[in-house]
Amino acid sequence: xxxxxxxxxxxxxxxxxxxxxxxxxxFTAIVTSLVGDLINPIIGLATGGVDFVNNYAVxxxxxxxxxxxxxxxxxxxxxxxxxxxxMAVINFxxxxxxxxxxxxxxxxxxxxxxxxxxxxxxxxxxxxxEELLAEIRDALKAQx
Length: 144
Prior knowledge:
Helix content: over 70%
Oligomer: single chain
Strand order of the largest sheet: 1-2
Strand content: under 5%
C-alpha cells in the first residue's frame, strides 16, 4: 500500500494540483486586496458612500437605531443581513471577472505560443537508427 501511495504522489497530476492550490491561495490574497482596497472604495464613491454591509432588517430583538450589523449581532438580535449578502455577491462577481480576465490572458499567451510552434519550420532530421545500422551492414559487406 505504501508503494501505491508513492506512485500516486509521484504522478505529475498530483504535483501540478498541489502547485495550483498553493498559487491559488496566494492569488486569493491579491484578489481580496484588489476587491477590498481598490474596487469597493470606488463602488462606495459611486453609491454616495453607502456601505451595503450594514444594511439589515431586525427580525426579532432590540437593536438601537442606526447600529452597525456587528453591534446588532452582539445584542443577540435576529437580523436579516441582506447588505452583507449583496456585498458578498458583488465581491464574487468582481473576483469571477478578475479570474476570467486572467484565464483569458493566459489562454491568449498559450495560443500565441502554439502558433509560433506551428509556424516554426522543422529542423532537418538526421538518419534513423535503422538507417545507420543498414549503412554499417552494407559497409561491412562491401569490405568482405
